[in-house]
Amino acid sequence: LSKGEGTEEDDHESLQWLYESAQRGFSKAQLRISYMLSAGEFIEKNEVEAINWLKRAEKSIPSAKPSYTGA
Q1: Is the entire prediction scored with pTM above 0.70?
Q2: Within 13 Å and on the Cβ side, how many CA atoms surround 16?
Q3: Tens digits of per-residue pLDDT, 12-25?
Q4: Residue 5 CB neighbours (<10 A)
Q5: Cα separation of 24 and 45, whole Å?
């Protein structure tokens, strides 16, 4: 989870920062938490919560639809 570059590795603290970012609406963090929950990676497997985070990520990702103005 954490690489510990310039400091000691601390997966618990890394996970806290990841959750903080996800709660603030960062879609990459939300997707990472969703994956971790679905795979049981570093945290207890919970597919219901994984789907909830995936839905939150979907809402956070800007629409890819082009916006047209004029004729």
Answers
A1: yes
A2: 4
A3: 899 999 999 999 99
A4: 6
A5: 22
